[in-house]
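Please, structure for the following, as tokens.
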Amino acid sequence: MGFLFARLAMSMIYNSKMKEAIKAGGCNTAGDAGEALNAAVASAVAAAVARCGSNGRKTIRAHDIGGGSSSSGMVVASRVKEAFKAAGCNTGGDAMGAMNAVADSAVSGAVARAQANGRKTVRANDF
């Protein structure tokens, strides 16, 4: 499990796609936003591993991650799959769509928080 958290230090998101999504929401991106989104995805990975294991399974499916699916491609699938594998889990075919949905939801929530606070720049604390 130690390897899992060491591996999570590498980015599991595409910063360029995150910036595009934030810009589409009408905001700018602060330098610390990518790290915050990466932390949110890493947290979703850890929660999915825990849920999968608590259900006695070895394959992580979309329902272990959360509801929804997205083809945004915001997460780096190879790194997420590697993190699952390091934790002793396999990756189901629908897992990456759910991980992208987590990232999409985090970005849209951060944009909404920045705008609600009267800012045009999404910062780490918005995630």
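Confidence is low (pLDDT under 50) at residues 1-8. Residues 2-14+31-111 form one domain.
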